[in-house]
Write a structure and sequence with these properties.
This is PqqD family protein. The chain is built from 3 helices and 6 strands. The chain is an alpha+beta fold and 91 residues long.
Length: 91
């Protein structure tokens, strides 16, 4: 993952709030995904393109954790999103 790469939610994926988290539905595959509150926050953030560093900073601010503490977790989440095909990556 390079520092200038951005991530944005795929427009063919819809989300709904569920118990503080979110449920995603990929309209192409009819596949559902469940997100905890942090994952739901990241999903909300990537409705517009964001870099990993911007997302880690936003999560750190919102959840009162250190940026370095959450950066690797956010990177894994973004990789999971990419593998599932629910985000678009732009270099």
């Amino acid at each position: 993952m390079n520092v200038s790469e951005t991530f944005v939610a795929d427009p063919e994926v819809v989300a709904s709030e569920v118990d503080g988290g979110a449920a995603l539905l990929d309209l192409r595959s009819s596949q559902y995904y469940g997100l905890n509150p942090v994952g739901a926050f990241v999903w909300d953030q990537i409705q517009t393109p964001k870099t990993l560093d911007a997302l880690a900073s936003a999560v750190a601010d919102a959840f009162d954790v250190g940026v370095s503490d959450c950066r690797a977790d956010i990177a894994r989440l973004l990789e999971d999103f990419a593998s599932a095909g629910v985000v678009q990556r732009h270099a």
